Amino acid sequence: MTTKTTTDSSPTAEATETPAPAPHTGLVAVLGRPHAATPEELGGKAARLDELTAAGLPVPPAFCLTTALFDVFLRESGLAAEIRAAEARGASALTVRESVLARDIPEPVARTILAAYEDLGRPRVAVRSSAPREDSAERSFAGQHDTVLDVSGDAALLDAVRVCWASLWSDRASAYRAGDGPAGSIAVVVQEMVPADVSGVLFTVDPVGGRPNRLVVEACCGLGEGLVSGRVSSDFFVVDDRTLDVVEERVRYKVTKCAPLAPGRIGMTKVDAADRDAPCLTRDQLAALARIALEIRDAGGAEQDIEWAMHDGTLYLLQARPITTRPRPETSDGARSPYLPGLLERQPDAVRHGTLWSRMDIGEIFVGLMSPLGLSFARHYQDHVHGDCAAALGVRDTGDVGLHMGFFQGHVYLNISYTAYLLGQALPTRDQRHFTRRFVSEEVDLATYENPFGTFPGGLEDLLSTTHWLRATAGEMLVMKDRARDMAESRLYEFDRARRLDLTRMGRRELHAELGRYLDYFHDAHVGYMPYYINAFGFYGILTELCAKWLGAAGDNLQNRIKTDMSSLRTVASAQEIWSVAQAAKARPRVMEIIEAAPLEEVADRLRADPDGEAFWQSQMEPFLRANGTRGRQEMELTHQRWIDDPSYVFQMIRRYAADGFTADDIMGRSRARQEGDVRAVLKKLPLPRRTTIEGVISMYALCSELREVTRMSMITSIWLVRNVVYEVGRRLVEEGVLHSLDEVAFLDFADVRRWLAGGLPAREAFPRAAIEERRRVHEYHNRLPEPPLTFVGEHDGTRAVRPVKDGARLDGLGSSPGRIVGRARIVEDLVWQADEFQAGEILVTRHTDASWTPLFAIAGGVVTDIGSMLSHSSIVSREFNVPSVVNTKYATQVINTGDMVMVDGDTGVVEVVEG
Fold it and tell me: Where does the PEP-utilising enzyme mobile domain start and stop, copy by copy (predicted)?
């Protein structure tokens, strides 16, 4: 559904003269009242609403401008003959649509529309298209025609009606009905606007799993458009249709909602703090909604997809349509194993049931649920890049790349068993336990685990592999600094070049060549980065073992108290650079006024339109974005915008740093306040050879960490480059009507994007609508399931919810940054929208973090995450800022509430809600 908004505007003569009688009154049907219009003349949506209203169900008052009135409009405006001629000569649908939009509505037709609006009481209304074949049992046409929300005033109403009429020739509607003949006709529903407090959808059958006797409800705060577009979080409920009991529930933390921001303007705003972690619907409201849904299903004789809204506790039905797609079996999207179908069947039972899977520490870029596009891009990485990354580590035999990774419930897992088997060719990981234990959370007991792949072949193979690894490692030590410098320089070159290009002006062949260039760079950046990542990982592991072996109790957590070179870590330095930008903004009152007063999404444009703002942009923002702009959440996920695409989060942090008056020492000084003297005192107790060994390992860990951060920017920039091309493809698909909006890029397959750019296949064949909808359904199903474990062996039943004890006051996790602190908790679900709420010294509680969260760590008193490990982003950056941190608590975001007084012990891994 395309949603537009319009502002209140009225003709100057409006309501000043007694209007003449409407000449076409018989062509307008008041829904729920007797009228002469046939269901075909009402269109699918209006016909269903007419039935529901007549049945006494709670539908907002509405009238329908029938297809017959639309035909009169075409005839009296002269468009009918013009459209016939255009279609005869093969003119595009866009040409016809623009002709309709440009034509004034003839006065008799306009008078008829406004008379019906007057009879309705002239409220704010939603104007919705209703095509004859829409919402039918054969084809839904959902989202193909336009809707205009929150319309008020005569002129605005006429504009909205014309938009809906013209959408009969929208590209997406034309593509959807391809092969079905001429466009036909269209009706329009004008319905009283419901300023929804809560809204959502209800399916009278499980739309993905197909489970019997299950009503599935999704509910969000505000208007349902936020849910349809996927821009807001929603609660999920399953109701038994026999007892009306709630049998499943998943209440999510809800930060944003879609709502009227001003008369005629719909947009995103924040959910009130008190409503964020509360269920959208009560049990009684769910039962009432379920009863109505069953009544609609029984009357319609088919399973239903129902849109509803609630305002001031009153329930309203906005739409009901038959479900036109068959639910897929619950287990058909990958059973219980991350092995891909086809590959799974070829594995011996010992491998199928004994493989160790983990999503800990896999580059900080695969964290969390990924979209279908993100997963397919991860498959590209696996098939075309990951094997060469292994080779860059000195692994002679890189094995079967299909076994390196797996995919489970929308998450990417590393096959630890197979990787450990292959890394047995390298001396440091000859003993697989050195690698395996770094990727295992406490869900897995390594004491009973055996690698089903066994150990890498010995004998001559072992000798060849060891020789190869030694030669490769020696070469790496010689070139590692030079390669990092070259990667940093090439990153800036590719970044600057990309910003100069206009992808919209490229033909398909040129765009294909550009994507090929970016994928080559993506390959080289990841292969170049991998040795730094793994070597830092390896030296950290060696340091941990040496501290435990040689220092005993005195060495507990010592590796987490050793300072690396903060100024050299790009991820951490980004916080200091934002602070510097904030100071520059404070020195320019006009600039700070714009940053603080403008809506976040408008700050950049307003700065660029202001002389002082433009000077600030060029001197401060451009250098900052050139250095940091390709950062973003969940970096391998192509659907997420980077800071360069949307700097809202940067402006949030500028506001935060400027308002709190932080100094540079506040941002960076805590890292220098480490107890370095204590560390040195402990090391001095060691014999010189051991002390020298540990200091050497510390030095190598620091060097690899520094180079890892430098080259990491090349890696994430390469992903941003690929994203640019994918979204240019998406823009073209929206223009051609293949996608309803750019939001649907998330449901493309990356391999299809490459094939379409490479060949001459028409877009509708390359991106079939059925496949897009299937991926959407599976993604929504994954989103409803509980978070799968960080690690597990063999298979996992992802449908089994693991619920924490709600009144539990203590959580045991992994202490990843030492120290103990007590402070107020702040749950952060959406980084961009909540950065301005976070107060200095609060305990940051979230599911997981990545590099884009770093500026928030600089002002946090402590950090607590649901998932993570000793080398996850949360842990590393917490240690650099000397912030106590506990990760892998599993349930912190569900048990802790914003405002709770929380004790965080980064040494013992305990998080406790305390009184205070």
Answer: 838-909
**What are the structural domain ranges in the chain?**
25-192, 198-322, 334-456+764-802, 566-686, 810-913
User: What's the pLDDT score for residue 1?
Assistant: 44
Q: Name the region of 135 (left: φ>0; alpha: ψ -120 to 50; beta: rest).
A: left
One-character DSSP codes across 718-743: HHHHHHHHHHHHHHHHHHTTSSSSGG
Q: Which fold has domain 198-322?
A: D-amino Acid Aminotransferase; Chain A, domain 1 (3.30.470)
Q: Take residue 767 and report the two structure tokens written for it.
A: 């991106």
Q: How far apart are CA 379 and CA 412, in angstroms?
A: 9
Copy the structure tokens of residue 92: 């595009």
Global confidence as pTM = 0.79
Q: Are 738 and 764 in contact (CB under 8 A)?
A: yes
Contact call for residues 197 and 223 (beta carbons, < 8 A): no
Can you spell out the DSSP letters for 803-846? Answer: PPPTT--EEE-EEEE--EEEEEEEE-S-HHHHTTTPPTTPEEEE
Cα–Cα distance for residue pair 294/215, rounded to 1 Å? 9
- AA identity, residue 84: R
How far apart CA 201 and CA 223 sit, in angstroms, is 11
Indicate the fold that domain 25-192 takes in CATH: Dna Ligase; domain 1 (3.30.1490)
CATH number, span 810-913: 3.50.30.10
Hunting for tokens 């908004």 — which residue is that? Answer: 5
**Residue 886 main-chain phi, psi, to 5 deg:** -130, 125
In the three-class reduction of DSSP (H, G, I as helix; E, B as strand; rest coil), residue 220 is classed as strand
- Give the pair of three-digit tokens for residue 74: 């075409």
- For residue 137, give the nearest of 304, 327, 322, 325 by alpha carbon: 322
Q: Give the span between the Cα atoms of 409 and 338, in whole angstroms.
A: 8
Q: Which two tokens stand for residue 706?
A: 């520094």
In the sheet with 125-130, reading across from the earlier edge strand, the strands are: 2-5, 146-151, 125-130, 187-192, 62-65, 28-30
DSSP per residue over 160-207, as a string? HHHHHHHGGG-HHHHHHTTTS-S----EEEEEE----SEEEEEESS-T
pLDDT digits (tens, 9 = 90+) for 413-468: 999 999 999 999 988 888 898 888 878 877 788 888 999 999 998 889 889 999 99
796 close to 889: Cβ distance less than 8 angstroms? no
Same fold, 198-322 and 810-913: no
* CA distances for 311 relative to 148, 235, 883, angstroms: 20, 17, 44
pLDDT digits (tens, 9 = 90+) for 533-582: 888 878 887 888 888 888 877 666 666 655 443 334 566 778 889 999 99
